[in-house]
Amino acid sequence: MTEDKPAIRVTDLRKYYGSKAAVDGLNLTVPRGCFFGFLGPNGAGKTTTIKMLMGLAVPNSGTIEMLGCLMPQGEMEIKARIGLVPDETLLFEHLTGYEFLEFVGRMYRLERGVAQERSRELMELFALDGAPRKLIGEYSKGMRKRVAMAASMIHRPDLFLMDEPFEGVDAVGARMMKDLLLEQVRRGSTVFLTSHVLEVVERLCERVAIIHQGKLVTEGAIAELRTGSETLEDIFVRVVGAERQTETLDWL
Question: Cβ neighbours of residue 106 under 8 Å, at least 6 residues apart?
Fold first, then answer.
């Protein structure tokens, strides 16, 4: 049964841009019903990995299995069961937030009445209903992230793929979004999250994986990765080899 299989399993995944390996032999398993943090320094291959999971980039080699289905053979079934919040929220600028949510709901084959009702409810939940005629092109970055997350939830997906979902969102909005995601995990969904804000990851995620230069350097439950009283930031700095004496400039 596919329910017995992990939410995500990637095997020997590679992606090259020219001669440079952005992702270099990645092996990763994400259990179902888990809040999973996917971390790494800038340029480590996080966004490239999540783009391959989303079907936005084609790997050079390796396999991707999600929710028991192989990519690209089961791509349509996978896409019907995942919610996406990409780093660059590519939204339809000339629609209102409500119109966009209804469109996404219909794309996921919700009945029109259901799509409309859920869109209204999500607009209210995400505090986007204050200016109902406002076009997405006029939204702030935080509002765009809110509507993107609302759209990712409209069809009640089994798996969320989220690349920096809280970037640009104010503290109140970020708290609300975190609580919503935690509730989805409690109900059995899986969240696969990338973020540079390690304090957020430490509060939310049960397990993390850290990649560096396209390769997995550590993976496991945060409690298992700690040495003594280390924070997630300490673990991150230790495993990516970034520990060095801070240099100073005489004129600073």
Answer: 112, 115
